[in-house]
Structure formats: C-alpha cells, structure tokens
Specification:
By secondary structure, this protein is α+β, with helices and mostly antiparallel strands. Helices cover 33% and strands 14% of the residues.
Length: 81
Amino acid sequence: MARPTDTQLAWLRRGLSEPGGKLPLFDRDGRAVDSRTVQACLKAGWAEPWRRNPLKPDWLVCRLTDAGRQIAMVENIEISS
C-alpha cells in the first residue's frame, strides 16, 4: 500500500471528525488545500468526490473512502512537524 505524505495524512485525518468523512477545503490557516494534495489522495483511493458546491461549482468537495479512513487511523504513521 502506498504511504501518504505528511501533508496528505494531515488532510485525511481532518476528515475523521467530520460528518460523512468530509474533507476540508481549507487548511487551519484558512488557505485552500493544495489541489496536488487532493488529486494525489483521489488517485490513491483515499478520498472521493462527494458533493457539488452550488455556490462554488469549481470547488471539489471530497470525503474519505474506507481506505482513506483506515490509513488516517493508523497510529504508527506519525506526522512530522
């Protein structure tokens, strides 16, 4: 199984506490999540497109897949600071 980068793992873990595993559009500093992070997680099967945002149709709203939830919950994968 592929291993997520620290940035990907941090993004995936934020979906663990959200209803339906919704992944955030913005980081904790209010900046848009890098599209490369989103695309890499989609390609790896850790995230999937979920809903369209009618107010911002160009925004890709994603949620965790079962594989993404499993990888996000693995405790021995540490995020470096």
